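User: Second chain of the day. Same drill as before.
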Amino acid sequence: MKLKFIFIIFLIGIIGLLSGCEPLTVLDPKGPQAKTISDVIMISIWTMLFVVVVVFVLLIVMLTKYRASKQSKDYDPPHIEGSKIVETICVGIPILIVIFLSVVTVKSTYEVEAVPQGYENQEPLVIYAASSNWKWHFSYPEENIETVNYLFIPTNRPIQFKIYAYGPMSSFWIPQLAGQKYGMEAMVNTLNLVATYPGEFMGRNAMFTGEGFAKQTFNVNSLSQDEYETWVEEIKATAEPLTEEKFDELLKPGHLGQLTFTGTHLGFSPPPTGHHGDNMSEEQSEEKMEQMSPLPKTEQ
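Assistant: Same format as last time:
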């Protein structure tokens, strides 16, 4: 009776705990890249669940069928050399499971690294995402604007993030749109994604970078193309210009709210020349940065 009462209390506690949990955003994808990742997670979960269920069923069968109490005291088990069939099953099935999960993982990795299928012929919106302690700086070279700790992106258009860091290595992550990608001081990493639904999503630094990393988050607003263009025009009409002195001030460790500027820091504080994921040489990267810079070459 006492054990039954403890079990009921434990069950009520678990139900109460789960009822207060928010849904896992990584399993609520709003773009093709995140959908691929979510599918891989569920495939892995179902595969592991299958293994666990089979193992526990076999355990119960073995404990029930071959328990000592069923045999007489003078029972002498026969001498068994082994069974090739059983050994083949015990070794072969785990190998097949590992091969299956490996194929799924490799295939999905190539899919999430590339431009989402169906958007290859569209011109991507390039956004430079730079982290610092403990904030995110987003540069839009196409629009010549910059935001801090928030993003506005158009729906159904490929977005290409160029990710790097001012300071410790960070991890750029928008769970409902794409997987994680590291930001480093000496290299620019590329992340491709598409938001297929309008709405507001959460992004964050998924890597520990000191005492303030827990609040190093940003909001992502996905808008229609018309709404996005209206937002850009409003920024150009109302925001203050970003100067080198102001940017140096923003890089100081600490937390900030959401800020908006005209111009970007790419001209006076360019990203690293080393690139990964976009198949550009160092010379091509420098030429592209010169083209995007709002300053003449002699002034940089």
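Residues 27 and 39 are 8 Å apart (CA to CA).

User: Great, on to the next one.
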